[in-house]
From TrEMBL:
PROSITE patterns according to UniProt: HTH_MERR_1, HTH_MERR_2
Taxonomic source organism: Kitasatospora kazusensis
Alphabetic keyword roster: DNA-binding
Pfam name, any one: MerR_1
Keyword DNA-binding tagged: yes
The protein, known as: MerR family transcriptional regulator
SMART domains for this protein: HTH_MERR (SM00422)
HTH merR-type domain mapped to chain residues: 30-99
Amino acid sequence: MATLAPIRVDLLTCGEVFDAPDTDPDRSPRHSIGEVATASGLSVHTLRWYERIGLLDPVDRSYSGRRLYSDADLARLAFLGRLRLTGMPVAQMLRYVELVRAGEQTFDARRDLLVEHREEVRQKLADLHATLAVLDYKIDLYSQLQARSPAGSQPDGQTDRKLSA
């Protein structure tokens, strides 16, 4: 007698899948475009655009033609969202997806692309930390000046001139 494959009854919601993508996601289509839009924070229009330009593989359709996304699609969207958050241009994201589609022989190229982007992200973080230090300095300076002046008043606008640099 043939052994049947176990039936998964522990299916996660669309939001749960998006928030914690699995390394081996379920590929059965089951999430509506509205659910995916809500879980990902992307608009329905953006999801359709991602599919049209090739960031997502063609999405399965229901018998009535509605898009149905799999957990694998959600895992891809979650990763793309993280890349986008780091400022990666869509063209570079497309290059990465093309490399993934090309197979295992592109591991080195994928790694190189991500290493290069990581360096850009590190530089942006360093720039942001420097900017944050300037903001902290200005906030502390205003707090000290406000504490010294009666009721937070600014005499003759002198404070503003001193703080403009």
